[in-house]
Each structure stands twice: as structure tokens, then as C-alpha cells.
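quick one before i forget lol
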Amino acid sequence: MRTTVDLPDDLMRRAKARSAERGESLKQMFVRLLEREVAAPGSGAPHGRVSLPLVGSDSERPAVTYTNRDLAEILDHDEAEQLKR
């Protein structure tokens, strides 16, 4: 299938150079990259959504521990703030 894609000039120059380095045509490179992209499981969060948990799930994120008592105090504080308004 033929299609037209408008790419930035610099990106196109780099794509041509990379495909030449690999000894493949630009079409072969685009097909290879598109096949890899569409075959890959969804990665990242679409449209700004986040994955939970936001903290404590890996070594890069600090662990945060809240007790039920901590949460109750936070909720009570929020409720009191809303009542003040």
C-alpha cells in the first residue's frame, strides 16, 4: 500500500543515513520499525494517564507507608478544610 508521510527534513536525512549504514532500503527500515512498534505490547500510559502505584513499586521510587490512622487523619483534615470554606 502506498501512503504519504510528512517527516521533518532532519529526521529524513538521519533515517536515510541509518538505512544506508544497515544496508537496507528506506522502505525496508520503515517496515521493520513499524512491524516492531505495532507488535509491541502497549507501553507507557496513553493520553497522560498514569499507572498505579505511583510510589513504592520499584527501586527508583521511594516507598511510602501510610497506616489507616494516617489516612483517617488526612481525610479528617481535608474534610475540616472543606467545611471552613
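fyi Residues 55-84 form one domain.
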